């Protein structure tokens, strides 16, 4: 499989030249005059929700903004609710949105009248990773044991994931194609609910982001079998990658912010400058390191080009997969 994200390939583009060079000055030309709505295109407890609320805390603690940022979850329709909401907020500079890969897949798979090219790119804060997780009580420790267990279940093996046609179902489809197995996909509202369902035995496996399942792993309740990354992660010692196990499986999820279309350069620059400061904060860097997030910061035209490139890559991947629904 062709990688849909070249790991750290854009790190040399940290903050686009045009915006990064001009943002401090431009940012002084405009500031929010009322609280800023921070829309999250996913349910509570998942990776996007955790990040947005962490960012809210850091912004307040570090006094990065005079107005408060208020997280609002709009995860309905695999993020369609949030996307449509942002489109209807055209020109409103007091709304930003935390994105994930459904930013690409939902407009491709649904008729919601949204073209992400019309939105205002702000910043990619990180790239998140995926792992295959099982409950420790399953006794499964290797990918071979996992494949055998799923085959023995005859299609009844329950894979918990967020939404339908989203990242988790896409990764599930990749696993099914690679190992010739079949799952019963159980869609849920957010990654936090998915991780909890695995601990409670309500599903048999998940492909949670590490940040969503790390605490349960540390508590000895769940076990990561393998990572869909190019290399092992320092924050998850001992966990192999699918690649080193002989399986060409690699998938990443962007954690970014965008705003409605129609913002002025000064309004865009304000948020880019704010997010740059947030990116550089010690609390964010520590959290990202501990939660296996790759802090590949990107803004401006380069970020928009990345979005559009990833949209086309996801379009191609979706054509070649029968994603669980």
TrEMBL record:
Family membership noted in the UniProt record: Belongs to the UPF0065 (bug) family.
Signal peptide coordinates: 1-27
InterPro entries, alphabetized: BUG, Bug_dom1
Any Pfam family the entry gives: TctC
Keyword presence, Signal: yes
Listed name of the protein: Tripartite-type tricarboxylate transporter receptor subunit TctC
Organism for this UniProt entry: Rhodovulum steppense
Keywords: Receptor, Signal
Domain of life, source organism: Bacteria
Lineage, broadest ranks: Bacteria, Pseudomonadati, Pseudomonadota, Alphaproteobacteria, Rhodobacterales
């Amino acid at each position: 499989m062709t990688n849909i994200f070249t790991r750290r390939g854009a790190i040399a583009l940290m903050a686009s030249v045009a915006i990064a060079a001009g943002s401090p000055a431009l940012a002084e030309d405009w500031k929010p005059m009322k609280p800023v709505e921070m829309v999250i295109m996913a349910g509570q407890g998942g990776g996007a929700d955790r990040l947005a609320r962490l960012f809210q805390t850091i912004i307040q603690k570090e006094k990065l903004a005079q107005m408060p940022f208020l997280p609002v979850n709009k995860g309905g329709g695999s993020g369609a609710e949030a996307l449509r909401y942002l489109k209807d907020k055209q020109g409103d500079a007091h709304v930003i949105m935390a994105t994930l890969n459904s930013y690409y897949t939902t407009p491709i798979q649904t008729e919601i009248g949204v073209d992400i090219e019309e939105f205002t790119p702000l910043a990619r804060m990180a790239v998140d990773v995926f792992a295959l997780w099982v409950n420790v009580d399953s006794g499964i420790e290797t990918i071979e044991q996992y494949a055998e267990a799923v085959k023995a279940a005859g299609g009844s093996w329950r894979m918990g994931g967020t939404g339908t046609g989203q990242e988790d179902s896409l990764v599930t489809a990749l696993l099914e194609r690679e190992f010739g197995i079949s799952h019963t996909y159980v869609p849920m509202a957010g990654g936090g609910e998915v991780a909890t369902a695995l601990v409670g035995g309500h599903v048999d496996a998940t492909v949670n982001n590490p940040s969503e399942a790390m605490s349960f792993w540390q508590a000895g309740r769940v076990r990561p079998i393998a990572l869909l990354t190019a290399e092992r992660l320092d924050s998850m010692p001992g966990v192999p990658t699918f690649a080193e196990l002989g399986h060409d499986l690699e998938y990443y999820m962007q954690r970014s912010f965008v705003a409605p279309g129609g913002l002025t350069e000064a309004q865009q620059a304000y948020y880019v400058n704010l997010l740059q400061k947030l990116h550089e904060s010690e609390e964010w860097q520590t959290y990202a390191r501990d939660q296996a997030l790759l802090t590949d910061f990107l803004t401006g035209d380069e970020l928009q080009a990345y979005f559009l490139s990833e949209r086309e890559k996801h379009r191609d991947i979706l054509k070649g997969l029968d994603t669980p629904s």
